Each structure stands twice: as C-alpha cells, then as structure tokens.
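Hey, I'm writing a tutorial for new members on how sequence and structure tokens pair up, and I'd like a real worked example in the thread rather than a made-up one. If someone can provide the structure for the chain below, I'll link this post from the tutorial.
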Amino acid sequence: MSTLTAISNKIKTPQELSRVVEKMKQKGKKVVLCHGVFDLVHLGHIRHFNMAKKEGDILIVSLTRDKYVKRGPGRPIFNEHLRAETLASLAMTDYVSIVDSTTATDFIKKVKPDIYAKGVEYKQKEKDVTGKIYEEEEAIRSVGGRIVFTDDITFSSSTLINSYLDVYPPRTVKYLRAIAKRHSIEFIIDSLQKLKNMKALVIGDAIIDQYHYTHSMGKSSKEHLIVNRHVSQEMFAGGSLATANNAASVCGKVDLLTVLGEKDSHREFIERKLNPNIHPIFFVRPETGTIVKRRYVDQYSNRKLFEICFMRDDDIPKSVETKIAQKIEKIIGQYDLVIVSDFGHGLLTSRIIQLICAKSKYLALNVQTNSANLGYNLVTKYPKANCVCVDEMELRLASHDKFSDIRALTKNVYNQMGCEVMIATRGASGSLCYSRTEGYHETPAFAYRVVDPIGAGDAFFAFVGPCFASGMSQDLVSFIGNAVGSLAVQIVCNREPVNFVDLSKFITRLLK
C-alpha cells in the first residue's frame, strides 16, 4: 500500500467512524478523541496527541470544517483537506475526521469515544470564552466516557502564524504589537463582558434586505441588456434591526424603537430574526410597507447587479411622529445609551432629533448616506451627540469638501457638532478616531478578503457606541471596532450579527 493510500484510508466520515469505533469497542479497545482546528500543527499538538493516546488504544483526531472556523479573516490558513491530510500523516493518529460543526459535541455523541482529551489550557473551564467545553464534557459523559486534560508544553497556532507567516503587512503587525503592550487580551475581553450591564435603546429605520441570486444567461437577442436566470433568494433583517442585533451581542438589554409599514410589514420575520434580549417597540406607518431593498446578486461572484427599493422616503406622518415623540419622552431616561441609526428614510424627523439630543444620557450617532438621500442626510443636522460614527464619504459630504485631508475634515465636523469623540471608517484604510482629549488615532484594517461589505458599518457602529459609552480608551475602541468590521465583511449582508465569542477569538488571534 502506498503512503498516500495509507493516509487517505485514515480519513473517515463521522458515520464511518461510528461503525469503526463500535467494532473496536467489541474487541476491548479503548478509543480516545482529540478535537480542534489544527490550522498549523506544531510540537504542542504532537505532544498532546502522544499523551492522549497513552490513555487508550485508538486515537481519533477530529477537526473543524473551514466554514465553522471563526477566527477572523484569512483563517484557517490551510483548508480542511490539507489539515486532515497533515493529521493523517502523523504516526500516532489512527483516524481523522472533518466535523461539520463548531464544536465536537455532536461528533462525540455520534462516535461515542471512551475518552475526550483536551489541552491543559482548558482545565480551567471558566476561562473558555466559548463556554463549549462544558457542552463537550457533558456529551462525553452522556456516552459513558470521560474527559482528560493533557499536561505538557503548550504553543499557540495563532502566535506562530502571527510571528512567522506574513498574514499582515509590517505596518499592521507593528500596530498590533503596540496594542498588545497597552492592553492585555484578558483586559479587552473583560471590558467587553462588562458591557452586559448596559441598557441600550436603538432608534432607526427598519430595513429588509433581500438578495435574489442569479445566473447570467448572456445578452438578449432583442435588447441591449444582460439576461439573468433567477436561482434563489434570501432575506435579512437590516437597518436598525441589524444595529440592534449587533448591539445585543454585548449589551445585556436592548430595546429597539422603529417603524414598520402597515402593508407587508414583515413583522413575523423581523421578530424571528431579532436577538432574544431585544425588546421591540414598533410603530406603524400607514398606507405603505416596511422598507425593502432588493438586490440582484451574481451567485458565483457575489457581485450586486441591480437594486430596487420599495419605500417611502419622506417624513413619517405627523400623527405617527407625535406617538413616537411621546414614547421617547417617556422612556429615554431609562437607558445608559441611545444608539441612533439614521438611514434618512423618514423616521428621524427634526422634532424627534431635537428630543433625542436633548434627553439622551449618552448618544451614539450614525447618519448614513445612500442613493435615496445623497447630499441631504448629513450628520450635521444633529445639534449634538457624544459619539459620532460616519464613513469618509459622509464626512466629506458634511464638510462639502472632496479633497482635503481626512484629519482636518474630522476635526472640523467634530468642532461643529461639539461631540466627545468622532470616528470615521475608511474601508481598506481602516479607521480614524479623534477627540479633544486624546487627539487622533489611526487603526489599520484587519480584513484582506471581503465577502460582502453591506452591514459591516452597522456592526462597527453597534460595538463602538457601547464601548465609548462605557469609558474605554480611544485606541482600544478603535481596535475593537476594526476587529468587528473585519469579521462583519466575512458575513453575507446581515445574515448573522458579529457575536461575542467570535470577536473574542479574533481578538485573541490578533494579539497573541
């Protein structure tokens, strides 16, 4: 048998391994399981595998499928097939399997090993930010097995990758090392966890994003247009709905005040998509539907081809405005933070803006430019805010300045609004933050592969608002914001929010 064949024979599906393990147990063999990503196999892994195998007769190593590896852009470095082949090439491994899940829990229940071996770093279970070690331990006990912790030299794949592989350009590496010196990983994650004590009110336009995936059939024989065949469609909770979902990843209690259309409200869909710790406060706009932005997307390249909007873009009726103003007046004092996502589609009228600015304990503001309001929906229409988040184009529109240095524009709008801090997102150039007390802080982007930029700005804003409100330093908030943005551009539209566990993993990976 050739070496390649022998390696290939070691790699089994979970179903195949379930049968193999059953036969091994009938022969009196004890089966041990190790699980992980194993992006870069190193000495720490080798020793872990060797110690694990001493606990039994057969060693199975399972690895997480690519699509479930949530360690940020560019990870895993090596795809699931290469990782499986590497593990199968090791002498101590008897079988290898690719697991279609974020954890080993389902795999354990299916394969039923006798022992589940984890590294010594998991012995203090409370330090596992994912909390999945508890589920995995329960799973191994449910099949009559036990968990063991190997105790030997440990290494970090992330540290080795960051140190020896050119994942980021020198400027970004220098920046990350400087951040790591000022703020420990434990301090950053603990600071984020403390946001759970914060109660936030999100106010803004509800938007349903629709993606209609198509396949290009070629040019029409009768018209000067490209014909596309409809393949499938997907619907997302966007606008303030996405902002609320992202904010709910870190804030313990989030209330959402928004307007739905009387016709085609999509209310059931929206309620189903909202995070469980979000309490929605819906108002109804008569004689129209909830805003829908339908994009036609090439299914292979994920490029947007065409967009149709179903919406009214004038102000909400006075009767609805009065009801909303009365509700805001009544409840706004209850919140530590008010997060305003203004898409310029009629909810945020002058009256409501004045009320929010006057009554908020802390106001985080994001005013967006889009095709429906280009040049009209400017951040400067707000008389004041504590934290202002805009992108570079929105900053230039507010300044009526196309070419000046971004630092000067940021400072000018900052002074005009009298806010505490202003942060401008700049796409591939990262972000620029300014405050009178801390000056300028530039943060590079951490993503070098973009799946979909839509929704990334909402996620960025939803995290930096609570962070600034809690009193975190400018450099730390900028770092967290860019980490969130880098994760968000890996997600199609607003398919899911950036969650706390994935962010914690990414921050750990960046700073190790």
